[in-house]
Amino acid sequence: MEEPSDIVVYSWFDEVPAHLKTRNQLKELGLRPTGQIKAKVVWKRRGGTGIAYLYDSSEVAAKKTATAAQLAALEKARMARSTCPYCGKVHSFVLPSSWTPWDCSGCIHKRYLADRKQAIETAKQALSDPLGCILDTETTDLDGYVLQVGVVDMTGRVLLDSLVDPLAEISPEAQRVHGIGTEMLRGAPSFVELLPRLRAVLAGRKVWAYNLDFERKIFRNERQRIDPESKRRPFRWLHAAEDRCAMELYSCFVGQFEAGYDEDGDPYEGYRYQALPYGDHSAVGDCLGSLRLLQELAVASDE
Ligand SMILES: [Zn+2]
Fold this sequence. Notes:
Elements: E1 8-10, E2 20-21, H1 23-28, E3 31-33, E4 37-45, E5 48-56, E6 60-62, H2 68-82, H3 105-128, E7 132-139, E8 146-153, E9 158-163, H4 172-178, H5 191-202, E10 206-208, H6 212-226, H7 236-239, H8 246-254, E11 257-261, E12 267-271, H9 283-298
Parallel strand pairs: 1-4, 7-10
Antiparallel strand pairs: 2-5, 3-6, 4-5, 7-8, 8-9, 11-12
Helix pairs in contact: 3-8, 3-9
Bound molecules: zinc ion.
């Protein structure tokens, strides 16, 4: 718009009468100027002179509403800023710049579907392995010693079912769970006495457990007691077991994703551990419960 000669010049905005507005001020009101420039504000600023033209706020029209094409372009831009770059899910909000796959429900779901499929596949392989077996123990405490051991093969045949004299106190909490008291253990072999049988049963076997880390901890305690100086890994069969943990499989299968920070402030993420849904808190009963669970996973639909 051309600037008429002889217009009023103000040196700052606080001198401008209320009926005069800049184009931007009118725009904020949803208006656009239709009349001539009426005045201007000219001020010194770093590197030169600032100029703002002023229009009469009575000479205006409503700003044209956006066209369908403009709206579509705006929507497209908003969609782009709401779309997860990792999985393509469109969220209902604009993604922050710190966005990671762990923030994205779409990414997590996609990963869950893959993990679930893998769990089903692993369960099938475990069951079809003639050398596979499942081991379970009942213990004196959550960080205690063995007082019952069970081993079954993948057909459900019981390979070992024995009480063990733990030579240690049984915590009331543990006893409430498995119901095994000192009286019942009278005459049972100690762990050291049972060990040759256990070794023979597990020789060449691929050992599964429900919560493998727990079994490892308990067997580590037993090893420590037998040979406190030993730096060796407790028992080969459990360390060779790698990740043969039915709880890991089942937790993947259920898929309650959790992410957050632990009490040390370290980030963690993964599937919440699920309790064994079958079993009777006897060693063999829990082995058979784990077997039933693997069988259910193996026939689940992986879609
Ligand atoms: Zn995503």
